[in-house]
Design the sequence.
């Protein structure tokens, strides 16, 4: 603190004082020097004007010696060297030297100016006297004409001695001022920096966790107000720190209590936060700052993270790790560019589902043989029995057929869910598949007197998937449309939207009530059970449709209003 503020302010004050003092000294010396030169010049001009008439009178007398004696005598009286120069620059008389040995003065600056009719002045070193001299040249006029130049000169030694003495006095004065100013600046600066030092030391103590620190400043100025604000800030920091510590403990407790694995990644894929459950899942020690692939070395998980990062939105997917199955859910935080990942262990759920599927498959296989046998015997009895018993046999046969259909649908649904040897991808034209399915149902459509409208967009790209399974989708949906539509029209549309192929199947049938719409894709769920039984429905058709569409990476949704028909919208990815 002292070095950065006290030292800087003191040195700054001192530099400013030295600068201003130097400027003042320079200005003062120049002004004093100019004042003395101007005063001496004025004095010499006055003396020259006083003897101008005497010089003219002596000059008119034919006696050069008399003029020279006059100059020597007058020069001694006034303590000034005087010289008379004619227009040719020849020295006619001089108070200090023999005119005969003196140089030509015609080109001296003060002489040139004087011959122009104005007083001339010059300061230079005299080669004759070997001293600095002040020269003042005055024109000597007669009848309005300049006849000669009277030059008066004095040594500058006295002026220099006077200025040197003045300089010493001013320097002493300035040194005293500098000392007093520096002392004052030190005192003022210390009174300012001492409270700042206390604030700095208090800030360091607070940074180390001592929130009981208080700063007391007695100065009744802004620094005292600053100290009060600092103390108030300390109280707030203490309160916030206590609150944050409590929240941190709560968060730690929550993270420890969560059974699901939790992992938070930054935009570079580095770990920010994790819990013990994730550590148990990964089996490799995790640390904040590590990349997630250093801890969870599973290619499938890397693909899930990359997919979420590319989409920039929520993404969920299952994957296997260490003989366990996890449902991985990723939430993408756009503002912070972070990902929050949760790991749900669904191994037991998957095992139970597998047991259920195996049970359904086994039961279905076991039921298929006796049901076929029952149907065969019923057909035999049907040919031999007449009357009322025949009605009973036909009822039994009809329900047996329904059981056989349910068994077939259960087997197909199990195959689709297991995804084992059923999904064979190939390139094919969806438009051709739609037309083939419509041809299958054409007799039934004509029988019910319905209108079918097909809208297929031109030049649709080929789709990649299993044509047999997608044919099952179209058959199930068209079969439902025919069952529940007594009059009106069935519409099929096929078009491309971005990178998806959209299949729209809409009817004008009885529709589906709003409360039943969310559950229509559940197994064995039927809206009108009595109507469904009479029409041979199993309640598995839409569930099979949804699984097949999802197996192709697509989606299906339904819109319906009771009494106004139903619309199914299928979106399948292209390529």
Sequence:
């Amino acid at each position: 603190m002292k070095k950065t503020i006290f030292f800087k302010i003191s040195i700054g004050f001192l530099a400013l004082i030295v600068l201003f003092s130097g400027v003042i000294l320079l200005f003062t010396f120049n002004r004093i020097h100019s004042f003395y030169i101007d005063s001496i010049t004025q004095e010499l001009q006055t003396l020259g004007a006083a003897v101008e008439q005497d010089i003219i009178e002596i000059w008119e007398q034919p006696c050069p010696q008399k003029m020279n004696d006059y100059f020597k005598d007058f020069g001694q009286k006034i303590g000034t060297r005087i010289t008379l120069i004619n227009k040719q620059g020849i020295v006619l008389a001089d108070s200090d030297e023999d005119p005969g040995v003196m140089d030509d003065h015609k080109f001296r600056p003060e002489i040139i100016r004087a011959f122009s009719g104005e007083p001339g002045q010059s300061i230079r070193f005299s080669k004759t006297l070997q001293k600095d001299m002040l020269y003042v040249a005055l024109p000597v006029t007669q009848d309005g004409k300049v006849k000669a130049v009277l030059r008066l000169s004095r040594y500058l030694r006295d002026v220099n001695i006077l200025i040197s003495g003045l300089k010493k006095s001013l320097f002493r004065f300035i040194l005293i001022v500098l000392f007093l100013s520096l002392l004052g600046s030190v005192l003022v600066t210390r009174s300012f920096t001492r409270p700042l030092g206390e604030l700095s030391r208090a800030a360091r103590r607070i940074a180390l966790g001592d929130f009981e620190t208080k700063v007391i400043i007695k100065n009744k100025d802004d620094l005292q107000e600053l100290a009060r604000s600092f103390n108030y800030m300390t109280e707030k920091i203490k309160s916030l720190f206590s609150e944050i510590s409590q929240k941190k403990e709560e968060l730690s407790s929550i993270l420890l209590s969560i059974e699901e694995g939790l992992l938070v990644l930054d935009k570079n894929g580095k770990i920010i936060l994790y819990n013990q459950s994730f550590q148990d899942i990964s089996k490799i020690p995790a640390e904040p700052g590590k990349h997630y692939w250093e801890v969870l070395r599973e290619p499938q998980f890397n693909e899930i993270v990359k997919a979420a990062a590319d989409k920039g939105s929520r993404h969920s997917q299952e994957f296997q790790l260490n003989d366990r199955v996890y449902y991985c859910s990723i939430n993408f935080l756009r503002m912070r560019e972070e990902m929050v990942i949760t790991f749900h262990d669904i191994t037991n759920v998957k095992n139970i589902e597998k047991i259920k599927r195996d049970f359904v498959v086994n039961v279905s296989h076991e039921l298929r043989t006796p049901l076929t046998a029952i149907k065969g015997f019923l057909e035999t009895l049907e040919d031999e029995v007449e009357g009322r018993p025949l009605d009973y046999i036909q009822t039994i046969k009809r329900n047996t057929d329904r059981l056989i259909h349910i068994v077939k649908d259960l087997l197909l649904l199990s195959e689709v869910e297991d995804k084992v040897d059923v999904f064979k991808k190939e390139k094919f034209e969806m438009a051709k598949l739609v037309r083939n399915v419509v041809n299958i149902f054409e007799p039934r459509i004509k029988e019910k007197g319905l209108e079918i409208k097909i809208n297929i967009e031109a030049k649709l790209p080929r789709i990649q998937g299993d044509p047999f399974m997608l044919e099952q989708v179209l058959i199930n949906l068209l079969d439902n449309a025919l069952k529940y539509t007594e009059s009106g029209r069935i519409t099929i549309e096929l078009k491309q939207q971005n990178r998806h192929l959209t299949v729209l199947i809409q009817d004008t049938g009885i529709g589906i009530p709003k409360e039943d719409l969310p559950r229509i894709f559940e197994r064995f769920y039927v809206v009108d059970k009595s109507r469904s039984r009479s029409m041979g429905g199993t309640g598995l058709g839409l569930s099979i449709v949804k699984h097949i569409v999802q197996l192709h990476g697509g989606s299906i949704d339904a819109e319906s209003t009771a009494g106004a028909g139903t619309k199914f919208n299928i979106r399948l990815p292209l390529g």
Summary: The longest helix spans residues 2-60. The chain has four domains: 12-156, 258-345, 350-418, 426-573.
